[in-house]
Each structure stands twice: as structure tokens, then as C-alpha cells.
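Changelog note: in this version the structure field was regenerated for every chain. One regenerated record is shown below for reference.
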Amino acid sequence: MMIARSLLCPALLVAALLPACTREIYYREGASQAQITAAQDACVAQAYREAPVRTVTTVLPGTFIPERQVCDGAGNCQTIPARFGPPQIVSTDANEELRKAVQRKCMVDAGYSRVQLPICDQNVRNSQPPAITRTLPPLTGQSCLVPRGGEAFQIITP
């Protein structure tokens, strides 16, 4: 049992850190950041037209609180009857996932694909002067990304 637990902890740590080791971007070779932003904005607008916000409100019953007896220091006891706690009101956007799918399809139709690039290690970062990628370069298996604050990044192909 101890061996399984010792192997499980590093595996969970790796799984938790993996998303921080890559970044997903929209990619089309030669596209500028301005073109990508314009396409994303147009696709978001299209997605909201095709799948507008549809708020669905659900009332969840309160939790059951069983009967209990409460006694003071003098031995006087009082029974508090069973009851239900207050209900929980939850509002969700029923079209949120559909809107995301419409936006992704729109970007694909515009010629973009989602790619995941690994975050560059320190040696690769140090080998290039800091910059912000303005036009997406050709990618290879060695391409990696350096976050530059906010949505800005630098793609490096060593």
C-alpha cells in the first residue's frame, strides 16, 4: 500500500502542474496578432448571436436537519424538531458550452487551429532576446512559448 501511495503522489503532482507547462493558442502560420484578435472578436459575436445567454434558475431543496435535543447545565432539555435548511438558488447559462463550440468552429472556419505549445525552459529563454510575437511563425516539434504578460507571448523555435 505504501508503494502505491508513493507512486500516486508524484503522478498527481505532475498532472496538477502539466497545464502550467503548456499554453494553448489559436494558430495559423503567418497570421498577425491583430488578425487573430479580430477573428476571435467576430467569432465571439457570432457565438452570442447563435447561442445567446439563456439563464436557467434551479431551486435546490435545503438540507435535512434531524431532530436534536439540547440540554443546559441544569439538566433542562429541549427538543428541536427536524427541519429543512433554506433552499439554494443556482443560476446557470444553459448555452455556455454551445457558445464555446460555436466560437471554436468559427475560428476553425477562419483557418485557425488550437495548438498547445510547451513553455520554454530557461536555457531556451536565455538564448533569445525577449520579444513579443506579432506574426505567427512556422512551428516545429521544438517550438515553445514564453509568456510575456497578459495574452502576449513569444514563440521560439530553437
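Spot check on this record: The CA atoms of residues 91 and 127 lie 50 Å apart. The longest helix spans residues 33-50.
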